[in-house]
Amino acid sequence: MELDNIEKLIEKYFEAATTVAEEETLKEYFSQESVAPHLEQYAPMFQYFASAKKERFTKQVPLTSEVTKVKKNRYGWYSAAAAVAICAGLYFNQPTAIEDEYSPEEIAAAQEALALLGDNFNKGTHQFSHLNEFEKNTTRFIQKN
């Protein structure tokens, strides 16, 4: 009867359906010297689990390392370099008037293109108001049910 029970427990174990108590029963069975011949193939696995459970990590784990300190030091230099780059960019990039760079015809053409773009954009956003109204009504209908 015990051998039949062990075989059922092995099947449950490989299906990941055993309880902790059933796994302990399997460990006790396979820790014995007399194991059924057709189940001997599972004995090393359970013996390994028992020995692996006793293993402990004994080395000291450093909480801070030299690499961490070097990285923290680099971040200070990176932020200083970024501040210098921003200041240099602001200093050397003095704003110029658009009239100095473009002709009046180019400015007029750009304004006309932007006005056309704005009109088309407003037409598109007007369609979204219909979608918002539809969403509001469907939400109200769903919440009533």
Task: Tell me what you see in this structure.
The chain is mainly α and 145 residues long. Among the domains are: 2-54, no CATH class; 104-140. The chain contains six helices and no strands. The chain is elongated. The protein starts with a helix and ends with a helix. 2% of the residues are buried. The model has no long low-confidence stretch (mean pLDDT 81).
Throw out a few tags for this protein.
mainly alpha; elongated; 145 residues
Strand portion: under 5%
Biggest β-sheet description: none
Q: N- to C-terminal separation? A: 59 Å
Number of discrete helical segments: 6
Shape: elongated
Question: In sequence order, what are the helices and strands, one letter per element?
Answer: HHHHHH
Helix content: over 70%
